[in-house]
Design brief:
The structure holds two protein chains of two kinds. Chain A is mostly helical. Chain A has eight helices and no strands. Chain B is globular. Classes of the chains: A mainly alpha, B mainly alpha. Chain A: This is Gamma-secretase subunit APH-1.
């Protein structure tokens, strides 16, 4: 216990997320607001789902173990579905916000694109979800005690930290995938996100057999990362250029998320034409590099 | 280029006048400065051809209309930045309060109640407890309403001395007495041995520097830090001495009252702000957290020029008189260095600043708030809001049996409330903007 465990678990769980925050989000006030609002949406979804679970538990027989376990599984699945529903609601809100920003901007372009918003919203969801998972654990790890003294796993804190980290990353990638699916009306992408989320949450019932929950989650994360990268315009070529630190050949890139590639999903109607109308399908010949 | 520069010279009185009248039209609020600076920013952006170079500044009406359209964008663009500027102090105050609540047990111990909440909550039945808490909240709210009305009446009848005395007494109490108690409790928690002499020195220094920073002048960051600290101390006092149901009820009723007091035409807070604006004064520094320095008017006065003249004359005592005069004329550049002038000329075209033009600009009724950097537009939040949010988070963390999730949830909810457009501060600036645009509309119609 004590400080070493506290700092170790904190950095494992939140280190990557905070570095993402500092390097990509902290500079721009608009992104910080989108982050906090995303966290708030996740919070509301959790609140509602926990309310349902709480009512169900209070209304049932507390002695029945099977029933309680069943209610817990039901609670988790319902919470996952509600989180994804709130992600969709947040997507709707951000769409409206983009239209407002475009209408009010000087040159007909929104200062932030929908895929940047998707990324930031994903990080918001992930940070809040991770914080809710880990904070009480971290507070307890500061005090005296021995982990697993009653026969439980001794690795509890460590595996919780790793699980939190993978969950934050997963939420980020799910955000990108989900918003992309919503933009392009590809329902199978949305369904894939929901199924992945249900899988990861369901696998956590394998605990304390941590191999059963952590390893598949990490594999899923790698898959989701690759998919999100490809959807954001990345390719093997881009990756190679990035790793070899070659200058990108595109001009006027406004996308400060340097990992993402050059292509855009949409084209923005230039100033002078109707403001606020954003076609959904990408038109490569009129691509405005953003 | 030379023709243009010759053209610009006779045009500069016109430019100065139009700039001056743009200033005058858009009167005493933050928006005016923002617009003027934004206009100059735009010119800076049109690098190669500045709009004012060689062209007369378009007539006043066009400037004002353009400014009003652009003001909406500016509100949105600067709105996000302002919100973030608010996040940081609110977060800091809440962090201080939560850290104290979680570590120092004094502030969660029940040691009686204030005289404003005489009814106890240790009652037999739930109904009795509810009734007591409603009565407590009613008494507290009526005390607050009476005090607010008293303050507004005093301000309206210009009893500034009474108000200042009141503010000084309350900040003395906070800075010396409450911080002494706080320090004592922190020492007790961490079992630190301390003697009275050291404590007296520490509290004396803390208090005196605080009084100076808050009521007079001081570094901006230090003033902000002190305001955050006294808000946290006040919030801790409320968390300790208000029983639970009373506290939640009071929070709810105060938010309703806050909305009413600011939005209703006869609301005391609205009258206070409007009176302050009519008189072109800033509200009391001890009650408002502001993220930029309030500069005094007439920062660039005639005196530096006179001083420089005398300095030059003392340097060149032995020089002939006409040479001294020439040097004076050359050196009298109004305090602007050569490189600054060159930069300015590159950006917005050659504008010559002569003592006459400077005097003309200064003779205008300028607003009492200027800012160095147009993008550092200040944002103001009343200390009452700080205390309110901190009491909310502190009470949640104190009563939630050590659960950090509750604290975190409250924290995020409060940040969202800060973001939202309906905080009283935003309503204030909306009111100000509305009144200023109506004023400029009147001037426009009168100038037709």
């Amino acid at each position: 216990m004590t400080l070493a465990v506290f700092f170790g678990c904190t950095f494992i769980a939140f280190g990557p997320a905070f570095s993402l925050f500092i390097f990509t989000i902290a500079r721009d006030p608009l992104r910080i607001i989108i982050l906090i609002a995303g966290a708030f949406f996740w919070l509301v979804s959790l609140l509602l789902s926990s309310l349902i679970w709480f009512i169900a538990v209070k209304a049932s027989n507390p002695q029945d173990e099977q029933l309680q376990k069943g209610l817990l599984i039901f609670g988790v699945m319902f919470s996952v579905l509600l989180q994804e529903a709130f992600r969709f609601l947040y997507y709707k809100l951000l769409r409206k916000a983009i239209e407002g920003l475009v209408a009010l901007s000087e040159d007909g372009c929104s200062p932030i694109s929908i895929q940047q918003m998707a990324y930031v919203a994903g990080v918001g969801f992930g940070l809040m979800s991770g914080a809710f998972s880990m904070i009480n654990l971290l507070a307890d790890s500061l005090g005296p005690g021995t982990v697993g003294i009653h026969g439980d796993s001794q690795l509890y804190f460590l595996t919780s930290a790793f699980m939190t980290m993978v969950l934050i990353f997963l939420h980020t990638f799910w955000g990108i995938l989900f918003f992309h699916g919503c933009e392009h009306r590809r329902w199978w992408e949305i369904a894939a996100v929901v199924i992945m989320h249900l899988t990861v949450s369901g696998l956590s019932f394998c605990n304390p057999l941590y191999v059963g929950s952590l390893v598949p989650s990490y594999l899923l994360m790698v898959g989701a990362a690759a998919w999100a990268y490809l959807l954001s315009g990345g390719s093997a070529q881009n990756l190679r250029r990035f790793l070899l630190c070659k200058c990108c050949s595109r001009r006027g890139g406004g996308d400060t998320l340097g990992l993402m590639g050059c292509q855009d999903w949409y084209h923005w109607t230039p100033n002078g034409s109707e403001k606020g109308i954003i076609p959904l399908s990408p038109r490569p010949e009129k691509q405005v590099v953003f | 280029m030379s023709e243009e520069s010759e053209e610009s010279v006779p045009l500069l009185p016109l430019q100065q006048e139009s700039m001056a009248s743009a200033l005058f039209n858009t009167d005493q609020n933050d928006n005016s400065e923002r617009r003027r600076h934004d206009n100059s920013e735009r010119r800076r952006n049109d690098n190669a051809e500045s709009e004012t170079n060689g062209q007369p500044q378009s007539n006043v009406q066009q400037v004002v209309e353009q400014d009003e359209e652009e003001d909406e964008e500016l509100t949105l663009k600067y709105g996000a930045k302002h919100v973030i500027m608010l996040f940081v102090p609110v977060t800091l105050c809440m962090v201080v309060v939560v850290a104290t609540i979680k570590s120092v047990s004094f502030y969660t111990r029940k040691d009686g109640q204030l005289i404003y909440t005489p009814f106890t909550e240790e009652t037999e039945t739930v109904g009795q407890r509810a009734l007591n808490s409603i009565l407590n909240a009613a008494i507290m709210i009526s005390v607050i309403i009476v005090m607010t009305i008293l303050l507004v009446v005093l301000y309206k009848y210009r009893c500034y001395k009474v108000i200042h005395g009141w503010l000084i007494i309350s900040s003395l109490l906070l800075l010396f007495f409450f911080s002494f108690i706080y320090l004592g409790e922190v020492f007790k928690t961490y079992n630190v041995a301390m003697d009275y002499i050291t404590v007296a020195l520490m509290i004396w220094n803390f208090g005196v520097v605080g009084m100076i920073c808050i009521h007079w002048k001081g570094p901006l960051r230090l003033q902000q830090a002190y305001l955050i600290m006294i808000s946290a101390l006040m919030a801790l006092v409320f968390i300790k001495y208000l029983p639970e149901w009373t506290a939640w009820l009071i929070l709810a009723v105060i938010s309703v009252y806050d909305l009413i007091a600011v939005l209703c035409p006869k609301g005391p807070l609205r009258m206070l702000v409007e009176t302050a604006q009519e008189r072109n004064e800033t509200l009391f520094p001890a009650l408002i957290y502001s993220s930029t320095m309030i500069w005094l008017v007439n920062m660039a006065e005639e005196d530096p020029e006179a001083q420089r003249k005398s300095k030059n004359s003392t340097y060149d005592k032995k020089a002939p008189a006409n040479r001294t005069q020439n040097e004076d004329a050359d050196a009298d550049d109004g305090g602007f260095s050569q490189e600054w002038q060159q930069q300015r000329d590159n950006r917005i075209g050659p504008i010559e600043s002569t003592p006459e033009s400077r005097a003309a600009v200064q003779a205008l009724p300028s607003n009492s708030q200027t800012s160095e950097d147009p993008e550092e537009r200040g944002v103001k939040l009343g200390l009452g809001d700080f205390i309110f949010y901190s009491v909310l988070v502190g009470k949640a963390s104190a009563t939630a049996s050590g659960d950090w999730n509750t604290t975190l949830a409250c924290f995020v909810a409060i940040l969202i409330v800060c973001c939202s457009a309906f905080s009283p501060q935003e309503m204030n600036s909306l009111l100000v903007f509305a009144s200023s645009s109506s004023l400029s509309a009147k001037v426009e119609s009168s100038s037709d």
